[in-house]
Amino acid sequence: AAKEQGKGAFHFFTSELQRVASERLALEQQLRQAIERAELYFHFQPQVRAADSRLVGIEALLRWGRDETSVSPARFIPVLEETGLITRVTEQALREACTALKALEVRGLADLRVAINLSARQLKQPDLLGQIQSVLTTYEVRAKQLEVEITESTLLDDAQCQTNAAQLSTHGVRLAIDDFGTGYSSLTYLKRFDVDALKIDRSFIADLLLDEDDAQIVGAVIGLAQGLGIDSVAEGVEDLAQRARLESLGCDLIQGYLIARPMSLDELLTWTGNGGSPDKSDVMARDQG
Ligand code: C2E
Ligand code: MG
Ligand code: MG
Ligand code: MG
Q1: Dihedrals φ, ψ of 148, to 5°?
Q2: Which numbered ligand comes closest to the C-alpha of 201?
Q3: Average pLDDT score over residue span 165-187
Q4: ipTM of the complex
């Protein structure tokens, strides 16, 4: 009986594996098609100064599908990375980021910056600096207005990643460490690279008021950033209590649903036009009329 059962389990296991593999293949084919048809696009999430809510920059986040939630980046970005398709996204990220920055500038919001996320594969691209410089030149965006977000593990990945990261920062592009505190957490790269910002991972912010350990960790990271003279950024700030706590801990910058969700460029322009609120257009019209 045990043998029978084992055999059944084996059959179940292989068919389950087959299902996962074919789903993965289907997703890959859909993604290739989406890239050919230019169906990947970016949304932008504001980053504000904690002290006075002043907009300082935006982060470009990759999207696929009709709305914010259709296909989660957590599901399709790993496939883009495994297949190498992600390198085809880098140039698009740069162009859309620069386009957004210029659109904000035209509306009087100068000196903002835009962040793009780079995976190890993207950071490893040969002549990444040349590619970035050429897009910046085309759009007349200064290097210091661009920030690249890389995770701790990406930065330690290999020599090419490190060379590219060092080159970028030498040429004035800002480096931010994304999901700070969740990677290898070797702090040596803070000595070796000219890092400009630490983005405290959302998981620490989520439990900031519930767990004293998280509060201690967040406080320590903010202190570390202050000591190094760089920015601390809190990711995933969702409520006022978290924000108040972050402010009292001395956090520089805040990003999260409390401020705004990631949105299309059009929505972002409306949002900034409304002074950073989603839907005050009727109030504004009344005030002006
Ligand atoms: P990330 O760079 O750490 O981005 C922050 C994620 O948190 C985003 O998820 C954002 O939508 C989400 N988020 C922001 N505020 C809040 C909040 O208040 N609450 C909650 N619950 N979530 C919040 P998203 O867009 O799903 O992206 C997931 C990850 O995918 C990103 O994490 C980044 O690592 C990666 N990613 C996104 N776009 C790109 C890209 O263009 N290239 C690469 N290589 N990776 C990307
Ligand atoms: Mg990021
Ligand atoms: Mg620098
Ligand atoms: Mg993050």
Answers
A1: -105, 130
A2: 4
A3: 91
A4: 0.98
